Amino acid sequence: MGTRSRVQSTGRSAQVLYHERALVEQAAAGDTDAFERLMKRYHDRLYRYAHVRLGPQDAEDLLQDLYLAVWQELPSFRWERGGSLSGWMFAILRNMVADRHRRKRVVLVPLDGAAEPSVEFEQDAVSERYLRSALDELPARQRDVLILRLLVGLTTAEVASAMGRSESRVKDLQRRGLSKLRRSMGEQR
Amino acid sequence: MRSRADALERCLVRLQAGDDLEELERKGIAERSLARELSIAGALRREAVLIDAPSFDRTWERFSVRLHHPAATRSGRPMPAAPPSGRLVAFGAAVALIVGILMGLLPRVHLAQDAVDRAVKTSLSQEAQIHVRLADARLTDLVGALHGGEQADAPALARALSMERSAALALGADVAGLDRRIREEVPSALVRTPRGIASRIRSILGTLLPPAADGPEAPGSGSSSSKSGNGTPGNGSPSAPRQPGKGSRQPGSGGGSLLPPLPSLPPLAPLIPV
To answer: What is residue A43's predicted lDDT score, i.e. its pLDDT?
Structure first.
């Protein structure tokens, strides 16, 4: 996918993407300052995914491992392969999270100090705790699409790149995941 | 179903851009039936705001320690290709090979064969050097045994030395340095060695040693050897295994080692007939 088409699909400006590309090239050549700037751009979003999937304790540790993996593998990253640096990094992060889940049974925790805020749902209030537990009950792909798309804030194209799926497949998983959440939350109310 | 997924995506994009759900419904952009899904999506997005990421600077500070650790060195290995691309490359390679064969390009396989030959030769050279080093260690052990009063071990060590030297020679190693050390160090060590043991060593090493001068070696049982305490102890590899001494007992014929020479290796046969 060329840069221009990626600009259209991700909705980001060409200038930002060209700058990102330059940073990637510098970091791949061993420039740690460029790598730092690159990671700073994605830090919050990467942490958010790790936090939702692992909880706050493990999330920061995992981020350290992720930075190291990205640093080591960055020279092999290719724009031509489809595209998206964020998709590539989130693909690595997803694998690392899955690996941690395999090694130990991770118990998802509710948000720190969350005092049962509620979701407006057609004039009814639904606990966000229900929302989180319903999210955890979803099939893995639907859950990951919703986390990446709605909690992390990636575009459909970036989610598609991270999950190795087409954009239309991502949209379909998104629709099915939200429908299932709606049904399960309807039962819980 | 596809249109419903697309409609949902369009609404999500509008909501993310800051539009209001009710406004979208009023304009007919959002179907009434999608309202619940869009509400849930909005709730998930609001929940994301509650997640406070730790400061990047703190994370980077911790990470930079690892970044400058040797373990952070880049491996240089390429990332595994995505499965579809990998299959395509494999398929392309197979097609290219078949086409190459059909076009009569097979003789070029000899280029690959040359590379294999070079690799095998390099490997043999490394093995030869190992035998040279082992022979060197056996020589050190032998000289140490002769000087240190352990003459009984000397014939076995001499045979081990001879075997390692023959193996190195058969693999094409240069043993000139080893031979020079044998000529320089063994005769002086034999001076105070009991005659019987000395002559056995001479017969084992054969022409590797210069001709013996008459009568310098200690006669008899070797009691005099205990006086020769000023010799240099062996400094060879202590871990080097000692040979059991089951080598040939044939007398020397003046042709060097008495061990049967190892057969020379045949030239590398072509792997694929051209």
So the answer is: 95
Give Cβ neighbours of residue B45 (< 8 Å, ≥ 6 apart).
A150, A151, A153, B15, B16
Question: Which residues of chain B make contact with A185, given a CB cutoff of 8 A?
Answer: 40
pLDDT reported for residue A150: 92
B84 min Cα distance to partner chain A (Å): 11
User: A180-189 pLDDT, tens per residue?
Assistant: 988 887 765 5
Chain A nearest-CA residue for B67: A68
Q: HEC profile for A65-123?
A: HHHHHHHHHHHHCCHHHCCCHHHHHHHHHHHHHHHHHHHCCCCCCCCCCCCCCEEEECC
- Min mean pLDDT across A104-118, A127-141, B27-41 is at A104-118
- ipTM, two decimals, is 0.74
- Within 8 A of B59 by CB-CB distance, chain A residues are 43, 60, 63-64, 67
The count of other CB atoms within 10 Å of the CB of residue A35 is 22
Q: Which of B153, B155, B167, B157 is nearest to B249 (CA)?
A: B155
Burial of A164 per CB tally in 10 Å (0-12, 13-18, 19+)? middle
Measure CA B33 to chain center. Answer: 66
Report whether pLDDT(B228) > 50. Answer: no
Asked whether the beta carbons of B166 and B257 are under 8 A apart, the reply is: yes
